[in-house]
Amino acid sequence: MADYPYPEPVVQVADVQELARDLVVIPNRRVQLVPNIGVIAGTHSVLVIETGMGPHNAEKVIKFAADYANGRKLYLTTTHFHPEHAFGAQVFAGQATYLVNKAQATDLEAKGPGYIDMFRGLGEPVARQLEGVELTTPEIVYDDSYDLDLGGRVVQLRATGRAHTKGDQVITVPDAGVMFTGDLVETGQFAIFPWFPPHDTDVSGIRWIAVMERLITESPRVVVPGHNDINGPQLLSDVRDYLQLLRDETWRRQDSAMSEDTIAAEVTDLMIKRHPDWDSREWIRPGVGCLCAEHTA
Ligand SMILES: [Zn+2]
After folding, report:
1. What is the pLDDT of residue 297?
2. pLDDT of residue 3
3. How far is it, in rounded angstroms, from Cα 217 to Cα 168?
4. Distance between Cα 8 and ligand 1 center (Å)
5. In the prediction, which pLDDT does 296 show?
6. What is the 107 CA–ligand 1 centroid distance (Å)?
7. Measured in angstroms, how far is the CA atom of residue 67 from the centroid of ligand 1?
8. Which residues of the chain have pLDDT under 70?
9. Residue 164 C-alpha to ligand 1 middle, in angstroms?
């Protein structure tokens, strides 16, 4: 099994950040394969966003959420089907109503089992967190949008259409100006392209750029990315600008009949020069691969 070079992918309920009244985030503390987890409350209901990876992590999340809810009804949603975001939902069964967009439910059903295998292969610490994992079916599935009334506060759940995955979902809390983007946005790292041909080629750089353009027009006050530090709306344009540059530099070289290996090497150098402080440089190359495929398509 591969050596896993990062800290244990364990949710720590610590340094919980209050972004607005009755709206907190359990931050990922910049640990790989731990997502930022949101808990949003109204007068009669509480929504949890993301489960953490596997039942052990999700146990901590639901304990925190149940204490926070203090008797109020619990809902769970996830931004997309990837393991650290959604593969703890089994623990919420019977305690929270799980709702997602249809495209995400389809992703989970079609690709969930394969992702368990793929992630187990990443190394022992990941496999340990996935012990006992069972995929569960969401109870409420909506097509394009769903307004969830928590009591004195309505949260908007919106399917964005294919971008980081086929089933991405963005959750906004209009009264607080807060937007949860999932992996459409990360802080201080290169955009995650789950481009794994031939097994998974659903990510679309082109559609991702279009989604970012739409999210920018919504002008949130606070953006909670899938991973890493919470920040302002600048995060949205940072991702848009990176994806556009990646597209333009990839396509320009492709037009001059350069090989994909050479394109990837040159574009990787360029992107690192442009963002020397960003982590996860290994995601540049899959981004080039995805955009190459989209250019000829
Ligand atoms: Zn993801």
Report:
1. 53
2. 85
3. 18
4. 18
5. 73
6. 12
7. 28
8. 1, 297
9. 7
| SS3 state of residue 177 | coil
CA distance 162 to 169: 10
Distance between Cα 183 and ligand 1 center (Å) = 5
Q: Is 213 left (phi over 0), alpha (psi -120 to 50) or beta?
A: alpha
In whole angstroms, what is the distance from residue 279 CA to residue 269 CA? 14
> What pLDDT is stored for residue 230 in this prediction?
98
Cα 297 to ligand 1 centre (Å)? 24
Q: Give the pLDDT score at 128.
A: 97
For position 284, what pLDDT does the model report? 98
How buried is 43 (Cβ within 10 angstroms: 0-12 exposed, 13-18 middle, 19+ buried)? exposed
For residue 161, report the distance from its CA to the centre of ligand 1, in Å: 14
Going from the Cα of 286 to the center of ligand 1, the distance in angstroms, rounded, reads 14
Token pair belonging to 193: 């392209």
* CA separation for the pair 17, 273 (Å, rounded): 33
**Spacing, Cα 192 to ligand 1 middle (Å):** 7
Q: Which pLDDT score, from 0 to 100, does residue 113 have?
A: 97
Outline where the chain has alpha helix (H): 54-69, 83-86, 102-120, 124-129, 205-217, 234-255, 260-274, 284-296
Q: What percent of the chain has pLDDT over 70?
A: 99
Q: What is the pTM of this model?
A: 0.97
Output the CA 82–ligand 1 centroid distance in Å: 5
Rounded Cα–Cα distance for residues 10 and 119 (Å): 15
